[in-house]
Every structure is written in structure tokens, then in C-alpha cells.
Amino acid sequence: MFGRVMTAMVTPFKNNEVNYTEAIKIAKYLVENGSDSILVCGSTGESATMTKAEKIKLISVIREAVNVPILAGTGSNNTADSVEFTKEVDKLGVDGFLIVTPYYNKPNQEGIFQHFKAVAEATDKPIVLYNIPGRCVKEIEVDTIAKLSKIPNISYLKAACGNLMNISMTQNSTDDDFVIYCGDDGLTLPMLTLGAKGVISVASSIIGKEINQMIAEFEAGNTKKAQELHLKYFDVFRDLFCDTNPVPIKYALSKIGFDTEEVRLPMVELDDKYKKIIDDMMKRHNLI
Length: 288
Fold this sequence. Notes:
By secondary structure, the chain is of the alpha/beta class. It contains 13 helices and ten strands. It has an eight-stranded parallel barrel with strand order 1-4-5-6-7-8-9-10, surrounded by five helices.
């Protein structure tokens, strides 16, 4: 449903307000440049510092602006709020929901299972489990993923755990129709070899066509060409995380003409030493 490349879209701000006009421009640019689908209000979209009203308006305008599948980030560490917000966003015509592992509370695996189950029961649309222990502290363990995959509309996993052993174990523990997406640009090709179907990407904001080509080459059996593309753009994947995401990618987008550099506290704009890293990387690849 979501294709090879789903871009985790940034949220542009102007004077600390969401810039919806700029967001529409970005979304259209992404679709024209290699994105098969778009994630709105994920980590890269600074959802943690947006109000529910802002999220609803942003999801709505992006849904209206582009004709590709839209995944909406509606999860939080509050199960009741996640359920109600998912129900509300469901009315906007999105194609699925990204639900993050409950953070800060540190629930055990049964609590994690019950959280995702409750949200899944609030909609008949696909749920993408978001396993990102680096931000959430708690990991969705393989046995829990396998158990959750039996719930009919929990059919996807965004894996940002950085653990290829876990990916292998997850593939062995779930049915063939359970789809894994890579959640770490630098691991897209390795995860494809383990059965992942694509990537929910940060880097595709600036090299979407190239990432889509890499996956297409792999699917076609041209593994050498896919490897060459992975290695060619590996510095892009690396340098876009020289500081906390989404600060570097917002700066990078500003270098190609979008009004995206502003972030909301507690994030701050990119330090000059990191700007040089991004500038140099983009020049190497003729992006600026």
C-alpha cells in the first residue's frame, strides 16, 4: 500500500506557527521526487511539540494536497488519548496510522501489547507499529510483535531499533503478509536482504528518487547496483544525523529553497559546525 519509499515529512514553522502553505509545497515536491507515500506528524514532523489542532489541520491539508497514501502519527504514551486521537484523524481520510511505543511510562511487554491492541481496535485501517527504543527507552520485543501481528489491522512495522538480529527473528516469527519497513536510512539495503519492503525515510526529502532507485534495483535482482547506490549515498544517511533529527534535514531542505530551518523548543537550529557538514555533503552530491 505504501510503496518503497515513505518520506517522514518535516513540519515547517514560521514565527513558531505551523506554515501550512509551505507544508503543501513540501508534500508536492516529495511526491514529484521519489516518495510513494508520506508520513505526517511523526518524529521528523516534530509531533511532540504540536497541538492536536495543529496536527489535525496539517494532516487534513496534506491529505487534500497530494494523491498518495498518507500515514498519520497519532500515537503517544497515553493510551486513551491515542485511541481518541486516532478515531478523530480517521475521519480525515488517511490511509493508516503510525503508533509509537509508549515512552516515559516504561510499560512492560503486556502493557505495550494492550496499548497497541486498544489503538488497533479503534480503527479498521492499517496500524504501523513504531519500534524506536532510542527515543522510547522500551523496545517492542519480538514475541510481542509476533503476538500483535495476529491482530488483523496490525500489518506493518517501522523498525528503527538498529538490530538486524531482531529483524531476522521478527521475520521468522510473523506471517508473510506482515510488512517490515526500515526506519533507519543507513540500514535500508541490509534490511531489504532480510525481507523488508521499503523505508520510512528522512533522507528521501532530498534524495527520494535515488533511494527509490536503490530499492527498485534490489527488487530487480541487481544487487551490485543497489550496493553501489547505498555506498554512494551513505554519507547522506550519516550526515543527516550529525545532530538530532529533524534539525539537520530541516536545514538541508532550507538549502534547496524551502522555508524549513525553524524548529520548536526544546529543539534549536543547527550549529554552524553541523551546517558545514550538511553544506559539504550536499555539494558533494550536487544538491546545492
